[in-house]
Fold:
Amino acid sequence: MILAVSHQKGGVGKSTIAWNLAVHFSKHLPTTIIDLDTQQSLTQTNQIRKSQGLDPLTIKHVSNAGELALHIENDKPNALTIIDSGGFDSAFNRVAIVGSDLLITPVSDKPFDLMGLQKYEEILKSLSEIQKETIKTNVLFNNLNPAMKNFGDLIEFICMSEHFELMTSVIRQRVDIANSIGVGKSIKEFRIFSKADQEFDALFEEVKLKLNIV
Ligand SMILES: Nc1ncnc2c1ncn2[C@@H]1O[C@H](COP(=O)(O)OP(=O)(O)OP(=O)(O)O)[C@@H](O)[C@H]1O
Ligand SMILES: [Mg+2]
Structure:
């Protein structure tokens, strides 16, 4: 199974979400991260994890889009690959979009996120035309102000597009989330039963259902 966390917009939480999904699912089935982030955020986080005496995750690097396509081709149904896409549009990221069984696109309520999503929709549209099927991504609200209740224009835009499906899970802005990654841990390993931990548990359940993981 291939799960890609993808958005051409930078800083929306792709690496953060991919990391927590990977730590969680690696406890249940063989899980590999493919790190396409130019800053290699998760490769660095994994090194910190190792230095803390925790079991490191399996991280794979690919040097071109063909190599990524080959990995996807050899995908096994009883294993999970989580692709942490870079925050830009590229052949790499397009192969990840087309080859994934589940696409997750984090967005926040910050100004410009609507514009970022409009640009991403254009990419999904053009890939859908090439593939002759409607490519859909699961939009995940992440890094939301904990007090924020009204999603306004953004939610309207998401619901109107055939390329977007809104996830029911929501991850709010929590300092624990940034701090846990800083020490190479998932949120659950950092502060169990915290609000962030509960929000991620809901996300894991939703992803499990969407990927049909038993
Ligand atoms: N829910 C959250 N609560 C608090 N901080 C968050 C949350 N999500 C992301 N962040 C912080 O936002 C910043 C950007 O997150 P992250 O690096 O995961 O984004 P990205 O989409 O992978 O960025 P890039 O496109 O540069 O790869 C980081 O400092 C991260 O700690
Ligand atoms: Mg990243």
About this structure: The radius of gyration is 16 Å.
